[in-house]
Specification:
Length: 339
């Protein structure tokens, strides 16, 4: 469902034909390489898989080749970075906050190497680093609108990976969206924690069942690879669930209402195009509804074939579209913290 827009492809093609680009590490010309490094094995992690697909699509559009290194832990992340810089690629694409410290270290150590970090950014951004983050609170708010309108118990909830400001972008915005259409809604927020916070379906399911027992009938899963557990609990308890990052509706048809989508492919292409054009780095770009970098499945062109339950509620979708327009226009402001 995540395809590079025809407009972006046309622009990139025009740039290539015009010969626009830098030199050395600043260019991604024909025959050059872009290396994508994950923070964990791709496996069934659709978010990491989308990063791989997005990097490959961007490389093709920019006349380069793509290579992927999968990591398993902090040591393998470091080893993969060491191996990548020795190949002198046009750019190294990293994904998630697990690389915050490492990318700062390597960017300082290798100032001629270009780096891209997706979905995170260190506090100090070296000149050879470009970060792409997501306004996750915007689509999460829209999911909350759906939950508030579909709710029957007066109680919504979130199971998130960690109790941190980063994950509260999802959980807090979800609750705010629900209260925007039903001020009497209460919410419960539970957090997986531990060493495998974003990949523990058993723990995620346990917490989801706890939330349901407390009265939650609309539950938002923000646990990465653990969301399968949230959806299992929702199906078992006959409540509705919401997913993240990619279209997760097919995982539990009739149970998953909608998803907060991160357009990793667009972010990777945009940032690699900046490198190709020789634009200065050292900055972060936040992608949200207005930038088409974050959205919900029901508002994409692939919504009709997504299998999402929300499609059975056109009246709710009309409210979601109105809320989206209000967010983009600045009529709705969503409080959030980025770190």
């Amino acid at each position: 469902m995540h395809r590079i827009s025809s407009i972006v492809r046309t622009v990139v093609a025009a740039l290539l034909l015009a010969g626009i680009g830098g030199c050395g590490a600043q260019a991604t010309g024909s025959g050059e390489e872009i290396i994508y490094i994950t923070d964990a094995p791709i496996g069934q992690n659709e978010f990491l898989r989308l990063g791989k697909t997005g990097t490959e699509q961007a490389a093709q559009a920019l006349g380069a080749t793509a290579r992927t290194y999968e990591s398993t832990d902090e040591q393998s992340r470091r080893s993969n970075l060491e191996a990548a810089v020795q190949r002198h690629p046009a750019a190294i694409v990293l994904i998630t906050y697990e690389f915050n410290d490492l990318v700062s270290e390597f960017a300082d150590k290798y100032p001629d190497q270009q780096f891209v970090l997706v979905d995170a950014c260190p506090t100090k951004i070296p000149a050879n680093l470009r970060c792409g983050t997501f306004k996750a609170y915007e689509p999460s708010y829209l999911l909350g609108v759906e939950a508030g309108l579909l709710d029957r118990s007066g109680h919504v909830g979130t199971v998130a990976a960690r109790d941190s400001a980063f994950f509260h972008q999802w959980s807090d915005a979800f609750a705010l969206g629900a209260r925007s259409v039903n001020p009497h809604v209460t919410d419960t927020q539970l957090f997986v924690g531990g060493d495998n916070a974003v990949g523990d379906p058993a723990r995620s399911k346990e917490l989801a069942l706890t939330a349901v027992q407390s009265g939650v009938d609309q539950i938002y899963g923000v646990t990465g690879g653990g969301n399968g557990g949230v959806f299992e609990a929702a199906a078992q308890s006959r409540v509705l669930a919401y997913g993240v990052d990619v279209n997760q509706c097919p995982q539990q048809p009739g149970v998953v209402v909608d998803n907060a989508i991160k357009r990793v492919d667009k972010v990777v292409l945009d940032l690699l195009t900046e490198i190709h054009q020789g634009k200065p780095g050292g900055a972060t770009t936040a992608f949200g509804l207005a930038e088409d970098g974050a959205t919900v499945t029901s508002l994409t062109t692939e919504a009709a074939t997504s299998g999402c339950t929300i499609l059975q509620h056109p009246d709710v979708l009309a409210r979601v579209r109105a809320a989206r327009a209000d967010i983009i226009a600045g009529r709705i402001t969503i409080p959030h913290a980025d770190k």
